[in-house]
Amino acid sequence: MKIQFVLVIITLLFLTVTCSKDEEKPVYDSTLFNLKLNGDLPDPTIPADNILTNAKVKLGRMLFYEKKLSKDLTQSCADCHIQKDAFTDIRPFSIGVEKLEGKRNAMPIFNLVYHTNGFFWDGRAPLLRDQALKPIQDALEMNETLPNMVSKLQSDKKYKDQFIRAFGSDSVSSLKVSLALEQFMMTIVSHDSKYDKYLKGEVSFSPEELRGKDLFFSEPDPVNNIKGAECFHCHSGYNFTNNEFLNNGLDEEVNFKDLGRFNVSQNVTDKAKFKVPSLRNIALTSPYMHDSRFKTLDEVINHYNSNVKMSSTTSDLLLHNLSGLNLNNQDTKDLIAFLITLNDFTYLNNPEYKNPF
To answer: How many Å apart are CA 206 and CA 199, to the nearest integer?
Structure first.
């Protein structure tokens, strides 16, 4: 009898402890997130009103993969921004919940913390938090209202608990959702490509990669018989972009179909200008251009080599391209060999970016 009594007591104690753990209430966690960087990336400027914390980054990651953000519970941000494809969509245009195509190619997600000229191809979202909410409300994408999104999250205990950890309250709002998504996307960085390792002296380039690098960072000099692809004028620095909106000569003025930045600024000098994308991971993000017109890097290089179109807003940086760069097939192969060195497989496989569910 004594043994049976002791066993009953132990069982009751175990159940009490277990229940206490299960019912343990979440608490606010302000522990700062450690954003690990290497390579040539400088320290980013984090918004003063949205300092990175572990709990907010975790919440943002959950929301990025959460299908409740869409009207019919079938799509998340991650469905059109897939990690193995550099957080972009290999389809020319993403398909939304109503089975309708988007109007522009989905842009990749990495190093967004360094962007200073807005988001989307036309820069219509000034801050990353602004960008985060637009696909949710877009009729061609997730087609949901913010009140409905908030209601769905508010009724989910795991989210109420995580909002407590992240913000100190279980009250869900679209602003908090945008701040959490902003935090997670700010932590997605690409800085460990072969090129980054080359700059640190950790690896060597092949002769083809070296020649491609020289072409990338050179201007043509016909007098001295020096070839150059002039890529660096628009795609320079640690993030391989000049952070500008430019018309890269895809069409003559009469053929402008998408006016790009002009739709935001209403400035006629912005017609057919688009955000200059980073070339990091470029070999993995086809198709190319805002309208997905080019399927391969060969096609892209051919455009800059001999098919740039003149218009009133074509960038002055393409003056040499207008007369032709005279790149041959071997030049193109070497240039692509260099561009492939910008692939970052650490970023593509980072478990901290994967679906947490």
So the answer is: 14
